# Entry
Amino acid sequence: MNENEVLAARERLAARQAELLNALLANGPAPAGFDEQRLAVERRALLSKRRGIVRMLGPAVADELGERFRPLFDAYAVEHPRRAGSRAREDAASFAEWCRAAGELSAKRKARWKFWQSN
Amino acid sequence: MAGIEDLGVGIGWRPEIDLTVERLPGVDFVEVVAENLHIGHLPESVALLLERGVPVLPHAVSLSLGGADEVDLHRVEHLGAVAEAVGAPMVSDHVCFVRAGGLDSGHLMPVPRTRDALDVLVANVKLAQANLPVPLALENVAALLEWPDGELSEGQFLAELVERTDCWLLVDVANLYANARNIGTDPERFLDEIPLERLAYVHVAGGEQHGDIYHDTHAHAVLPEVLEVLDELCSRVSPPGVLLERDDNYPSDAEIEAELAAIRAVVDKHRG
# Structure
């Protein structure tokens, strides 16, 4: 296999994989030939895994949102698919910011002066 | 080449169950998730296991070897550094892609079983191997969906991968069971087609059936059906090691111990 052949294979594969992830993570159109129901199952599974990680990393946010956590996270997630190279903690922080901007979470509390500190 | 050393029965080390792993009887080896370890700051519990002489195998989840992009050598380098830090005889990742088109799926996605995908995977695996200090084993993943135009069965795909790269195989029998349930893979045919002499070790994990879909959650008990797939594998080859993966919803020590014992019973049955 020469390098050019591998490069050409990489390009063809890249287009197909990007199309699938776009459909699963960013509400893109379903790629040809896939079972629509299975795409929906996979979409839910990926979303649920991501939601679980964000809940684990930011339990205070999830607690404050209560029952709103799930619908809000799901709306945020499809608008903000995770970028390659991003970290789960950044995802959790960005979700919290998104909620604050939408007025769904109280403003971030500033670190309070400790009573023994003079000001 | 001779098979790898006899590992026995092991469990995936996780920070949440570090004390459990330390005190459980019958843990012959452990795996650590390579991405969660920092060189120079090994968790105390992992250091303790190493002192006891328990082999620690780094398992990676982010190389995206089946991805269209050239494998990220920084990630490979980290995996290699973890292997050296714990003196591992081998490292592993999956036959999957994680990232594509600038997005991160956060999961181990199946690759299409096409010539293109195989050629790219082979190129990435060779590049990774050239930059790793120890042999690389690759694991079959659980798929919830099937790419439309597979040219090879999963077993054929992995057999050709081994032939072209000389990698080892990490066979996850829970993933095999999941694929049988969800996409109709035949586990026996899979086991017939892969080169069992290149089997590094085996993964076992729990999951849950939701409607017509089996979810490989690593957060539920191991199903008897999964142990049956292990039994089928053991009837063909004595696996160098078998490792239980539990990642969430951790049960009592006694339950984990019972799962390890059940695994050992299947392995021992065939050793006579």
